[in-house]
Design goal:
By secondary structure, the protein is α+β, with helices and mostly antiparallel strands. It is about 60% helix and about 15% strand. Among the domains are: about 100 residues, no CATH class; about 140 residues, Histidine kinase-like ATPase, C-terminal domain (Heat Shock Protein 90), CATH 3.30.565. Strand 6 and strand 7 form a beta hairpin.
């Protein structure tokens, strides 16, 4: 303990004692004077100078002793009811500052201190829990990004090495160059999605809500994949209600539809079927995107909206596990709802509810 801290504690103790001394002196003096006055009048006793001098000395001694007792009692009270709880909170805070987010403070006994300290303890524990989960997500995010970047970079490095062969046939050169292009495009898409997701999660993108026809937007987004479904022979079935308007950010919602359509075509085998429906309730526009793909188990469905999570690793080269995380974040921002129903070997149905205008 430093000298300045010791001096501060001594001065604090002296100030507490002086406060109790002044209070006790005032109370005892007033009571003594009242008692002596009443006693002298009642018993007709004449107060002499010696009597008053003796009474004053005894009163002063009593005040000193009482003040000392009060000071010690108050110090013990503060030690048990204030200093110990505060010390617990400070120690836990210092551990958290050092990066230990697993620290928790045990509730303080209600008879030992003010229950308001438990309110602080509960808030601290909730904060520590949230920071712990954020730290876990951050660690997982960095690990996942590193892993996802490693694959396309390795592909580009390998193909780049192979392209250095002067005797490489033109067919192979074109194939390797295409591999580098695909890997670089995948890497660029991942970086774009990471930036979008980061801006969405940090509220750096503010929705520009406007009223528009949702059916028209769905048709426009779906037509962008015309070459995909024609090349794979996928049957398209649409049931889009007319004049269903919503008030939302059209650009943000286009991310939702493009990701859902992209996933539907990615997981639907050749000759399969993708169905898009739009209906309206009193308060919501309901969009359903159904595919006849591989489907997923309930365990996979429970994690499908997490960053970098890919339930079907056979299609991992076609994505980076960020699309549905983007979808979930956009739907949350627009105060909508999203859910998925799926069965292995049958397909999946994603349902999105957006508030109507």
């Amino acid at each position: 303990m430093s000298k300045s801290t010791k001096y501060a504690k001594i001065l604090r103790a002296v100030s507490h004692y002086l406060v109790f001394f002044a209070l006790a002196a005032f109370v005892v003096t007033c009571c003594s004077m009242l008692f002596i006055s009443v006693l002298s009048v009642t018993l007709d006793i004449e107060l002499t100078h010696d009597n008053l001098n003796t009474a004053a000395k005894l009163t002063f001694i009593n005040v000193v002793i009482i003040s000392l007792i009060f000071t010690v009692a108050d110090a013990l009270r503060r030690r048990l009811t204030v200093d110990i709880p505060i010390r617990r909170i400070v120690d836990a805070t210092e551990k958290m500052i050092q990066g230990d987010f697993s620290v928790r403070i045990k509730p303080i006994g209600r008879f030992a201190t003010d229950d308001k300290f438990n309110d602080i303890v509960n808030c601290f524990n909730k904060m520590a829990e949230e920071l712990s989960s954020v730290e876990t997500l951050r660690t997982d995010f960095v690990a996942n990004v590193s892993h996802e970047m490693k694959t396309p970079l390795a592909v580009m490095q390998n193909f780049g090495t192979l392209l250095q062969d002067p005797n490489l046939p033109d067919e192979k050169r074109i194939e390797y160059a295409k591999g580098i292009t695909d890997a670089s495009r995948r890497l660029a898409d991942m970086m774009t999605n990471i930036l979008k997701l980061n801006r969405l999660e940090n509220q750096q993108i503010y929705p520009q809500a406007a009223e528009y026809d949702l059916g028209e937007q769905l048709c426009e987004c779906l037509l962008q994949y015309e070459n995909v479904w024609e090349r794979s022979g996928i049957d398209i079935d649409t049931d889009i209600a007319e004049n269903v308007t919503v008030k939302a950010d059209a650009e943000l919602l286009s991310l939702v539809w493009n990701n859902l359509f992209s996933n539907a075509f990615k997981f639907t085998p050749d000759g399969g079927k993708v169905t898009v429906t739009l209906s309206a309730t009193e308060h919501h526009a309901v969009v359903k995107v159904t595919d006849t793909g591989c489907g997923m188990s309930p365990e996979v469905g429970a994690h499908i909206f997490e960053k970098f999570y890919q339930g079907d690793t056979s299609h991992s080269s076609q994505g980076n596990g960020l699309g549905l995380a983007l979808v979930k974040r956009v739907v949350d921002i627009t105060q909508g709802e999203i859910g998925v129903e799926s069965a292995v070997g049958i397909g999946s149905t994603f349902t999105v509810k957006i508030k109507r205008a």
